[in-house]
Design the sequence.
């Protein structure tokens, strides 16, 4: 069996920064340490931090007064920050800078008096954070039907923004619906869907056509991982989403000659390597890596963490 290893795959710069932030804090101050929401949407990453004494919470009120809390890569709303401040929490912000960019756009357009159509999945951590920046100005749209259900006047200032981890194709369907109904609606100055999402989707779209099956390493609550499976299926190649090698099923490989392996932006590479080893030993897989892609992106650790490290080093 031939195994094509996609590139790029796995961790993006924002995920690297967020995970490094929590690990640095574990090493620097140790537990107790709290993280608001999962630091990234990956079961193994979260479980590994829990084993080191990190506590993940979905309400800021679960963090004891005066303790340290890390905001996840998906960002948080101003209301969460205010609540954390009221509880005298030491805040370390590990929000991906590309998500922060969308937050800044939301605040700016709202101050200009615009109404904002936010293309994304309601309830997703990132969308909740962006919505919280300007709740009176933002309407979340998940489908063309949601766009059709809106009723803005022709003289209303409109702009659309998007969740950073959407499928490009799905987002474009909704954006096309927005443009059709509201031709005067403005686009953001630069596309909101992040480089890592775009690159990983592009690799699957290009490579899946040569495969009989696509394996995507990632968790079910990882939006970008789910999108990779959907893209492969839409283009005609069956796809399976799995957290680790324990979820491999023999029946997936019946009549399969070529397998494409990729990983969502929050999936650790050691999980990918474990699956490659299984494909090699159990199915006689021969691994062939696609042309390596250097995305050339790196984000610095949060300023508050860097200041903390400097102060503790004195």
Sequence:
């Amino acid at each position: 069996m031939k195994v094509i290893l996609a590139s790029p795959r796995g961790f993006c710069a924002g995920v690297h920064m967020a995970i490094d932030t929590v690990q640095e804090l574990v090493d620097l101050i140790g537990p107790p340490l709290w993280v608001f929401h999962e630091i990234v949407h990956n079961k193994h990453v979260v479980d590994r931090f829990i084993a080191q004494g990190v506590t993940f919470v979905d309400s800021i009120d679960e963090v004891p007064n005066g303790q340290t809390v890390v905001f996840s890569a998906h960002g948080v709303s101003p209301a969460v920050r205010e609540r954390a401040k009221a509880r005298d929490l030491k805040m370390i912000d590990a929000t991906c800078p590309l998500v922060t960019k969308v937050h800044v756009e939301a605040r700016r357009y709202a101050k200009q008096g615009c109404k904002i159509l936010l293309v994304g999945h309601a309830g997703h951590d990132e969308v909740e954070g962006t919505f919280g920046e300007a709740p009176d100005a933002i309407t979340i749209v998940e489908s063309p039907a949601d766009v059709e259900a809106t009723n803005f006047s022709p003289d209303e200032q409109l702009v659309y923004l998007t969740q950073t981890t959407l499928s490009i194709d799905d987002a474009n369907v909704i954006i096309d619906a927005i443009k059709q109904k509201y031709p005067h609606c403005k686009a953001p100055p630069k596309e909101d869907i992040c480089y890592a999402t775009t690159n990983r989707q592009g690799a699957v779209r290009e490579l899946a056509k040569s495969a009989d099956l696509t394996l995507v390493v990632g968790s079910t609550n990882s939006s970008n991982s789910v999108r990779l499976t959907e893209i492969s299926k839409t283009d005609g190649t069956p796809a399976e989403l799995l957290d680790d090698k324990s979820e491999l099923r023999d029946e997936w490989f019946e009549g399969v000659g070529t397998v494409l392996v990729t990983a969502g932006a929050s999936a650790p590479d050691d999980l990918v390597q474990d699956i490659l080893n299984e494909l090699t030993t159990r199915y006689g897989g021969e691994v062939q890596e696609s042309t390596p892609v250097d995305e050339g992106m790196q984000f610095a650790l949060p300023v508050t963490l860097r200041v903390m490290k400097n102060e503790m080093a004195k």
In short: DSSP finds eleven helices and twelve strands in the chain.
